[in-house]
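Ops channel
N.P.: pipeline sanity check, posting one input/output pair.
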């Protein structure tokens, strides 16, 4: 069962960009766990959402959406997050 859609993807059968990707319950839970882990790591680093967003070069609203589990994080950005917070991968990705 599909609960919510986010992001975008390219449909290779019609060669069109589609507006959203359907996420499963498991994927939504993963985004939620990541968001909580990110929030804890950011607070542990004594950074506000605004200061953190500025350090990684993104909008405050993006950080807010990550922490709320609303959007996915690109891999390269995930690497920048980890470096900025000075934490291990498992801190951000653990269950």
């Amino acid at each position: 069962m599909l609960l919510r859609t986010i992001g975008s993807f390219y449909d290779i059968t019609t060669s069109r960009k589609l507006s959203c990707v359907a996420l499963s319950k498991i994927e939504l839970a993963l985004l939620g766990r990541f968001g909580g882990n990110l929030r804890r790591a950011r607070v542990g680093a004594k950074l506000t959402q605004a200061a953190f967003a500025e350090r990684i070069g993104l909008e405050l609203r993006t950080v807010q959406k990550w922490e709320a589990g609303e959007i996915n994080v690109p891999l390269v950005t995930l690497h920048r997050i980890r470096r900025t917070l000075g934490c291990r991968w498992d801190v951000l990705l653990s269950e």
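N.P.: looks fine end to end. The CA atoms of residues 53 and 63 lie 6 Å apart.
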